[in-house]
């Protein structure tokens, strides 16, 4: 029915501070959120401030590839 190029796409946001530290000894993992973005309004990478349960604070979560 629809072609492969949808306007709204699902993206995965990953905590940048957990990823930089390589899931350091204090944090047991990496925080990830799943959301949608409009490809026409935001053609670049999406970055949002979200709560990271492993860092116990609000950090910047950036879009990663699937």
UniProtKB/TrEMBL annotation:
GO terms for molecular function: structural constituent of ribosome. PROSITE patterns: RIBOSOMAL_L33. Keywords: Chloroplast, Plastid, Ribonucleoprotein, Ribosomal protein. Signal peptide: none annotated. One of its GO terms (biological process) is translation. GO terms for cellular component: chloroplast; ribonucleoprotein complex; ribosome. InterPro entries: Ribosomal_bL33 (IPR001705), Ribosomal_bL33_CS (IPR018264), Ribosomal_bL33_sf (IPR038584), Ribosomal_zn-bd (IPR011332). It is found in: Plastid, Chloroplast. Its main location: plastid. Belongs to the bacterial ribosomal protein bL33 family. PANTHER family: 50S RIBOSOMAL PROTEIN L33, CHLOROPLASTIC, LARGE RIBOSOMAL SUBUNIT PROTEIN BL33C. This is Large ribosomal subunit protein bL33c.
């Amino acid at each position: 029915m629809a072609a492969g190029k949808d306007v709204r796409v699902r993206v995965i946001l990953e905590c940048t501070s957990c990823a930089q530290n390589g899931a350091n000894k204090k944090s047991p993992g990496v925080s990830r959120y799943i959301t949608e973005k409009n490809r026409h309004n935001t053609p670049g990478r999406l970055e949002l401030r979200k709560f990271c349960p492993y860092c116990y604070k609000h950090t910047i979560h950036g879009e990663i590839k699937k």
